[in-house]
Amino acid sequence: MSVDYKVPTPEAVGAFYDQVNAIVAKVQGGAMHYGYWTGPDDDSDFETASDRFTDMMIERIDARPGQRVLDVGCGPGRPGVRLAKSSGAELVGISVSEQDVRLANERARAEGVSDRVRFEQANMLALPFPDNSFDHAMAFESIVHVQDRVAALREIARVVRPGGRIALTDFTVREGPEGGADQTVVNVYDSWHSAAPVKAEEYEAFVPQAGLVLDEITDITDNVKYTGMWTYLELRRYARENPVPPEVDKILGVFGPLLNGTEGAPGLTDEQLVQGWRRLLTKEQVQGMIIVVAHLPAD
């Protein structure tokens, strides 16, 4: 099946998040990334599921007091601040979104860690730091906006010291009953300015090409698949009562047809939508997510 993914530019990604980040963070529990649920009986709210996922990434980084961590694609700063507070490490976060950086620095000041946590505007493909500047790096749903994963990994590896760990999450595509993702799914990715997803096994080649050693590839699709349902429902509820930018309208517009192909999702009740989503979630998921952990060889 032929599908058409658009290639996002850093400028377009930054402009997108300038418009939507505060709203998305609000409906996604304060951060701006997927939630992690332990299974279909886990009734955690989005904030709990989101923090659980953040803590899984923090555990993989395993930063220590006095170490320096780079947060690549920091969003409004919640994961980075959480890492700094729990580990005692210093943290520098970057984003292509000016609004991300402003909100993240406000969070660092509000939570009393601005003396060792700061955020700045930068492109992950051209990081404004010298070689070997950081002990570790985290890229939480940010590499998804980059077409060339190897180039992004090489640039992150450049600024990490030998022996340092890099933990990231990325969108993946599985082969479903009818092949890969169809155009409806592709439109959802495009509405978030995401690049084409990759297959999980491609990281077995990406990581060594970037000069790194692969430690882990974990498919967490079945744990994060509830994120779309939560995000759609909460964005829909928010938009009923508040003005939203065109970018949010587009997200809502392309999510609807996922529900068994119906174009009438805007007219369905929340309960009908939940039932529709849950039917989808019982099927094999074509689009997914992985955690990848790698390290720089020690000298």
From TrEMBL:
MF terms in GO: methyltransferase activity
Q: Does the keyword Metal-binding apply?
A: no
Keyword list (alphabetical) reads: Methyltransferase, S-adenosyl-L-methionine, Transferase
Give the UniProt record's GO annotations in the biological process aspect.
methylation
Kindly give the InterPro entries that the UniProt entry links to this protein: Erg6_SMT_methyltransf (IPR050447), MeTfrase_dom (IPR020803), Methyltransf_11 (IPR013216), SAM-dependent_MTases_sf (IPR029063)
* Polyketide synthase-like methyltransferase domain location: 49-291
Q: Which residues form the signal peptide?
A: none
Q: What is this protein called?
A: Methyltransferase type 11
Q: Which organism is it from?
A: Plantactinospora endophytica
